[in-house]
Amino acid sequence: MRSSHTRSVILGTGSELPARVVTNAALEQLVDTTDEWITTRTGIKERRILEDGKGNSDMAYRAAQRALRDAGVEAKDLDAIIMGTVTPDYPFPSSACVLEDMLGARNAFSFDVNAACSGFLNALAVADSFIRTGMIRHALVLGSDTLSRLLNWKDRGTCILFGDGAGAVVLGATHDGHKGILSARLKTDGSHVKTLYVPAGGSLKPASLESVKKNEHTIAMNGKEVFKIAVRSMEEISRQALDEAGVSIDQVSLVIPHQANLRIISALAERLKVPMSKVMVNLERYGNTSAASVPVALDEARREGRIRDGDIVLLSAFGAGFAWGAAVIKF
Ligand code: COA
Question: How far apart are the CA of 223 and the centre of ligand 1, in A?
């Protein structure tokens, strides 16, 4: 258990999913796939896709407004806005800066964190550290991604997996020794950069006619490799976060894993010896929403009454990098 007297607590949550639904049946029209294959291999039935002309910050704004309302905190009281995303509105500045202006959060400093699907966990850990040191009192932490913009709609190995969404939490400082973020652990292994990445569009290979023609601005992935390492890594970091919190897995009321693939989630639950009844799953409706997956699931779990005062929740995520993380939170 941490010794610091100040902890961060989740004061409110919110989420936003775009209105446009793309079913597996719709994808059958685009690539050589079937609803049956997608359902049995991934658990995904449909996903949401952001309409053209809108950016990441449009979703983040709605999720943020809901989280602020839920928390009873005004935008002007935010000291920091930290967003996990790999799909900011612009290469720079950050989507968090765009959001700060949309919210009128004039007293906040804002930046994005790039840790792919683990982005929310990384953003949460950073905000938690700022709060525990006393540097800030209120933070808006988001995971918000529009991976639809990075998909090759002719690649059946990737386009069936992902969707768009945004999730937000408002963190506040507390001296109540019994609740809040009990632990947060992060890890990366950069030797797997090219197992899951977007080859062009960065400084190494800026956009060119050739890069566009070769589809190098879309996600390239070795799915089997990701699968194997995701299960192992999320198990390991979940156990580390539980140890740091001084909490046993039996004390956890709900596990909220990254929503990438139902088979990954089931394998993780099995390794952690947690029944699926204690695992939050919503990927059948949204697919893998990258950094948004954990905060969207957290918000839904709260609204469905699956998290009550005193409950201990384990968050665990994994993504490109590879980067992964886990956190234990007492509500
Ligand atoms: N529809 C139909 N067939 C498909 C398909 C699709 N959408 N995608 C792949 N296939 C085919 C393959 O071409 C292959 O055919 P072959 O045997 O004739 O070569 C067969 O299905 C099996 O492919 P494979 O890649 O071995 O399937 P899999 O069981 O590993 O499932 C993933 C593929 C992508 C669903 C799975 O590996 C996965 O979820 N990995 C993790 C990816 C992930 O979560 N990434 C983000 C992490 S944040």
Answer: 6
197 Cβ below 6 A of ligand 1: no
In the numeric block, the tokens 């976060």 are attached to 241
Closest of 19, 50, 63 to residue 151, by C-alpha:
50
For residue 101, give every residue at least 6 positions away whose Cβ sits within 8 Å of its Cβ, in sequence order, or none: none
Ligand 1 atom closest to Cα of 230? 47
Chain segment 234-279, per-residue pLDDT in tens: 999 999 999 999 999 999 999 999 999 999 999 999 999 999 999 9
* Other beta carbons less than 10 A from residue 233's beta carbon: 23
Residue 258 is among the residues annotated as catalytic for this protein: yes
> Strand 109-113's sheet: what is its strand order?
7-16, 164-174, 138-146, 80-84, 109-113
Q: Is 33 in the pocket of ligand 1 (CB under 6 A)?
A: yes
Distances (CA, A) of 263 to 46, 145, 269: 16, 22, 10
Helices 293-303 + 119-133 axis angle, to 10: 80
- Sign of the torsion formed by the C-alpha atoms of 75, 133, 237 and 242: negative
Q: Domains plus CATH for the chain?
A: 7-176 (3.40.47.10), 181-330 (3.40.47.10)
- Residue-wise pLDDT for 38-57, tens only, equals 999 999 999 999 999 999 99
pTM for the complete prediction? Answer: 0.97
Q: For this structure, is 159 an active site residue?
A: no
Q: Which of 290, 255, 306, 304 is nearest to 59 (CA)?
A: 290
pLDDT of 107 over the 70 cut: yes
